[in-house]
């Protein structure tokens, strides 16, 4: 079975498992897990930030960042389809009791003008909700793994500093953005107040994210991690896995992007499917199947029947994600399976 549902499905290599087996561990709640400390110090140098905190998940990283920077009843400005609203709105409501004020952008890129418009979209003052945080996402999952332009980030950061609110980057797939654009990780970090990165997606580690920012921010974040139930004890084996991924898997993300482009070209040769190959920036392809069927699950069922797993993104829209376990042979096989399924469904379409 070829599994292209997500890059969260990556599994540790044998070498990574051995690193985990032999990892030095201690009690991280006491600050005594050497492997965790080493990973946090490494990320501080890599991103050139004052502080770094190893947390269980990307969602926890984002939620800690929100809680640390937004008072109850106040406002977070973001794009409607970013993970923080699309998947985490309940978490934000429960944990921070904060308001999400969203814009919906055709290209997914929120800019200074959008933030100004949202701020001015309702009454402000001591009786009303106060905007305290802008959040962005890089790469953007909903928009086919699109990278967020660094110049737009700089403009946003300058503006948020000017008006006295914070800027957080959900960088769950920031390593993909870094490889795709060549923008240094430290360049992203210096143009936001806080950011998170995930080790369990394209990097192939089994666990964890890193939350980064100023020393004061991380001090607050450490307390919140404990309050949110994320203070763990002997966790060094997971930190060692993340370190191994940074050392040996980061550069391999480039191969994932190359294979994604190649697969987009192959799929574009199927007459019933139209893909803008130039729009493929990282490791995702979205296929619109509305012209073939109004039953996304039927398309997915047929693909699975032939040996391919894909993800149902939205009704009529299927997501393909290339990860480190996918080979060139796999993308050719997968493209042939999709071609077969498309032909099968095309024969069942009745035009009137």
Automatic annotation (TrEMBL):
EC numbers: 4.1.2.5
Cofactor: pyridoxal 5'-phosphate
Lineage: Bacteria, Bacillati, Bacillota, Bacilli, Bacillales
GO cellular component: cytosol
Family under the similarity heading: Belongs to the threonine aldolase family.
Recorded superkingdom: Bacteria
Domain Aromatic amino acid beta-eliminating lyase/threonine aldolase: 3-288
Sites of N6-(pyridoxal phosphate)lysine modification: 201
Keyword entries, A-Z: Lyase, Pyridoxal phosphate
A biological-process GO annotation: glycine biosynthetic process
Family matches, as SUPFAM superfamilies: PLP-dependent transferases
Molecular functions (GO terms): L-allo-threonine aldolase activity
Gene3D superfamilies linked to this entry: Aspartate Aminotransferase, domain 1, Type I PLP-dependent aspartate aminotransferase-like (Major domain)
Name of the protein: Low-specificity L-threonine aldolase
Coiled-coil ranges per UniProt: none
């Amino acid at each position: 079975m070829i599994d292209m549902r997500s890059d969260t499905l990556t599994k540790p290599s044998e070498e990574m498992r051995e690193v985990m087996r032999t990892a030095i561990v201690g009690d991280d709640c006491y600050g005594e897990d050497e492997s965790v400390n080493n990973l946090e110090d490494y990320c501080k140098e890599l991103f050139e930030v004052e502080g770094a905190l190893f947390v269980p998940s990307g969602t926890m990283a984002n939620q800690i960042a929100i809680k640390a920077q937004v008072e109850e009843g106040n406002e977070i400005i973001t794009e409607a389809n970013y993970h923080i609203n699309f998947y985490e709105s309940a978490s934000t409501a429960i944990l921070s009791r904060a308001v999400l004020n969203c814009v919906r952008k055709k290209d997914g890129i929120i800019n200074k003008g959008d933030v100004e418009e949202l701020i001015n979209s309702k009454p402000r003052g001591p009786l009303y909700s106060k905007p305290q945080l802008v959040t962005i996402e890089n790469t953007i999952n909903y928009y086919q793994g699109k990278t967020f332009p660094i110049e737009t980030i700089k403009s946003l950061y300058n503006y948020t500093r000017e008006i006295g609110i914070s800027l957080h980057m959900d960088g769950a797939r920031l390593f993909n953005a870094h490889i795709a654009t060549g923008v240094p990780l430290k360049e992203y970090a210096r143009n936001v107040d806080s950011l998170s990165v995930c080790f369990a997606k394209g990097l192939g580690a089994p666990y964890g994210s890193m939350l980064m920012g100023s020393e004061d921010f991380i001090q607050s974040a450490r307390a919140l991690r404990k309050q949110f139930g994320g203070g763990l004890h002997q966790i060094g084996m997971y930190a060692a896995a993340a370190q191994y991924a940074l050392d040996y898997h980061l550069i391999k993300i480039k191969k994932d992007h190359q294979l994604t482009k190649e697969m987009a070209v192959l799929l574009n040769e199927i007459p019933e499917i139209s893909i803008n190959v130039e729009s493929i920036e990282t490791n995702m392809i979205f296929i619109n199947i509305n012209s073939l069927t109004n039953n996304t699950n039927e398309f997915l069922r047929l693909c699975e029947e032939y040996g391919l797993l894909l993800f149902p993104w939205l009704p009529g829209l299927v997501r393909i994600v290339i990860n480190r376990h996918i080979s060139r042979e796999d993308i050719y096989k997968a493209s042939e399976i999709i071609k077969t399924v498309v032909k099968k469904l095309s024969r069942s379409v009745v035009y009137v």
